[in-house]
Amino acid sequence: MPVSSARRPAITRASPAQLKKYFELKLAAELGPHNVKRLLDAGAADLTILDVRSAEGYREGHLPGAINIPFEALASRLKELSKQHEIIAYCWDTTCTLSTKAAYVLASNGFRAREMIGGMEEWQQSGFPIEV
């Protein structure tokens, strides 16, 4: 049975200008594994790579030089991070939202935060090295 138009939820439509702003911000907040690898290869001194997966996941392998603060502990461990560094958070894969949530928590607390889309899975599929 079709839903009557009276019970159908209203669809909010964004204007082209609103969409443009959204995509500008989205692009500024996200990096792919290839971009992160370029930053690491360039030796960016003011960069922190943050693995927000579990301690077990981190021990099994992580991005070179990454530190591990599981997402569940992030809010209570912010003092361990520098606001002078850009922080790139990553998690498991494209379906994992922990890096997005972590970047939000970080940005909400005054950190320069971005997320690596695709997570550890995309990093490894790109053939990039991991540390154990």
Overview of the molecule:
With 132 residues, the chain is of the alpha/beta class. Helices cover 39% and strands 14% of the residues. The protein contains 6 helices and 5 strands. A 5-stranded parallel β-sheet has the order 1-5-4-2-3. Strand 4, helix 5 (98-108) and strand 5 form a beta-alpha-beta unit. The radius of gyration is 18 Å and the shape is globular. The chain starts with 15 loop residues before the first helix and ends in a 7-residue tail after the last helix. The mean pLDDT is 94.
Keyword list:
alpha/beta, five-stranded parallel sheet, 5 strands, about 40% helix
Concise description?
By secondary structure, the chain is α/β, with parallel strands linked by helices. The protein is built from six helices and five strands, in the order αβαβαβαβαβα.
Rg (C-alpha, Å): 18 Å
Q: What is the end-to-end distance?
A: 55 Å
Number of helices: 6
The proportion of residues forming helix, as a percent range, comes to 25-40%
- Give the neighbour order of strands across the main sheet: 1-5-4-2-3
The ordered H/E elements are HEHEHEHEHEH
Outline: globular
Biggest sheet overview: 5 strands, parallel
Report the count of strand segments: 5
